[in-house]
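User: I've been trying to design a sequence by hand for this structure and keep getting stuck. Would you show me what you'd pick, starting by listing the structure so we're on the same page?

Assistant: Good idea, let's start from the same input. This is the structure you sent:
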């Protein structure tokens, strides 16, 4: 399964979260560090859900870019 990950620039680097997995988050000083930490967070989050007997939600969040009209 592939989950959408949202990356946001912060004052000190980047943060990331998975909208379909509440509480699955990461933050780092660079995009690359944040992406690597988020991969680990995703694995740990899903492992914890399985251990707790929680249902793993199917990915359902979608993203798109919309072109802004020229001024």
């Amino acid at each position: 399964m592939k989950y959408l990950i949202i990356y946001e620039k912060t004052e000190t680097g980047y943060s990331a979260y998975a909208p379909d997995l509440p509480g699955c988050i990461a933050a780092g000083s660079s995009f690359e560090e944040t992406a690597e930490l988020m991969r680990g967070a995703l694995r740990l989050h899903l492992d914890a859900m399985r251990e707790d007997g929680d249902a793993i939600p199917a990915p359902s969040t979608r993203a798109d870019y919309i072109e802004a009209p020229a001024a």
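That's my pick for every position. To get oriented when you compare it with your attempt: The chain has a mean pLDDT of 97. Strands lie at 6-9, 14-17, 25-28.
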